[in-house]
Amino acid sequence: MEYRIVFHPRAEAELEQLYEDIAERASPTIAWNFILGIKDHCLGLSTFPLRGTERIEIMPGLRIIGYRRAVSIAFAIENQQVLILGIFYASRNITPELLEERR
């Protein structure tokens, strides 16, 4: 079974901000490749979504996976889809308040 991957608008905005930050410090090419890697990692959840660590103390159904030890991807599985709730860079503390309006 394949799951549909859906990016929450806030997750999309976080990807855009991450691109801008990396492009400014490194280069647009490096930033673009990094963002594509994150998106590919997320799309890989379509075939096996039960990865990462369950974090029910933050939000019921929340799971978190890492990407290159620099990014945490917060997501939840609902019906036949994986909802990417947030893309957090540099060990940002993921709290219930941060994800409150994303579900």
What does this structure look like?
There is one protein chain. It contains 3 helices and 5 strands. It is of the alpha+beta class and 103 residues long. It has one domain (4-99): RelE-like (YaeB-like fold). It has a 5-stranded mixed β-sheet. The longest helix has 17 residues, at 9-25. It is globular, with a radius of gyration of 13 Å. The model has no long low-confidence stretch (mean pLDDT 94).
Any descriptors?
103 residues, alpha+beta, YaeB-like fold, five-stranded mixed β-sheet, 3 helices, globular
Subunit arrangement of the protein = single chain
Tell me the name of the CATH class: Alpha Beta
Structural class computed from helices and strand pairing: alpha+beta
Q: Can you list the strand order of the major beta sheet?
A: 1-5-4-3-2
Superfamily at the CATH H level? RelE-like
Q: List low-confidence stretches.
A: none
Mean pLDDT: 94
What is the alpha-carbon Rg in Å?
Answer: 13 Å
CATH topology: YaeB-like fold
CATH architecture: 2-Layer Sandwich
**Topology as H/E string?**
EHHEEEEH
How far the N terminus sits from the C terminus, by CA atoms, comes to 23 Å
What is the β-strand count?
Answer: 5
Name the overall outline: globular
Biggest beta-sheet profile: 5 strands, mixed
Q: Could you say how many structural domains there are in total?
A: 1
Number of helices: 3
* Proportion in helices: 25-40%
Strand content: 25-35%
